[in-house]
Amino acid sequence: MSTALTRFLLSHPTLRDLHLAYIPEYEDLDQLDPTLITKDMLPNLRSLRAHPSFVQMLASGGCNGLNNMTSLSIVHGLHDELKEAVDVMLHSLLLLAPDGLPNVKNLKFYLRDIADDSLDDFVGWMGDFSKLFPRIETWTGDLPNDITLSLFTQVLSGFPYAREFEIEGWPEPEPNGSSKMDAIRAISSHFQFLEQVKFRRPDGTLADILRISRYREGYQIFSWVEDVEDT
């Protein structure tokens, strides 16, 4: 299957959006044949949704199409393999693009099943993401349950060009007892362009939106919208 998938990608250079589902029972479905990957593969790639191992194989093969991406969504399956897979993926991406991938504007990354024991990993990963993707405008993901307000500020402030954060769930207990509003107020001074923060329920449905308006005088106005519907 890995050879067939790789040949398919090689024979379709006009692909712009590549979304690969991850099914733990069929782990080989999203693998590539490393002997066939070329630097000229996927020259028109703009959006990639894939398991970390797939991204890593493209990066290790020197796929320059990754430099053209504007959106990356990382999906994963098995708990035991995720941490190593993400570490290897980030290492490969940093080797491919030591100066980063500034075209990436949208990043999605969820902890899911490892949210209870991943704080140190999460902080490290977000630091690497900020180096790799210095021009991120939208970050979507969830947070470790034991994150503190200072670490919350630290990891998100690595994306100074962010216009929107989309957070699924909210840690319990709340970071240092801070509500959603308190936490965003605390970090807002780190962002010049941040316009809104969306909060989603654990099932993915949209719960609240916090909008931020800025004025020349330097002050900010926060508008809280509850029980909103996705448009």
Please summarize what this structure is.
Helix content is 29%, strand content 19%.
Notes on the protein architecture:
The chain is of the alpha/beta class. 29% of the residues lie in helices and 19% in strands. It contains 6 helices and 9 strands; from the N terminus they run αββαβαβαβαβαβββ. The protein has helices spanning 2-10, 52-60, 79-96, 119-132, 149-156, 180-187, and strands spanning 17-19, 47-50, 71-74, 106-109, 138-141, 164-168, 196-200, 206-214, 220-226. A 9-stranded mixed sheet has the order 1-2-3-4-5-6-7-8-9, covered by helices on one side. It is globular and about 55 Å long. The model has no long low-confidence stretch (mean pLDDT 87).
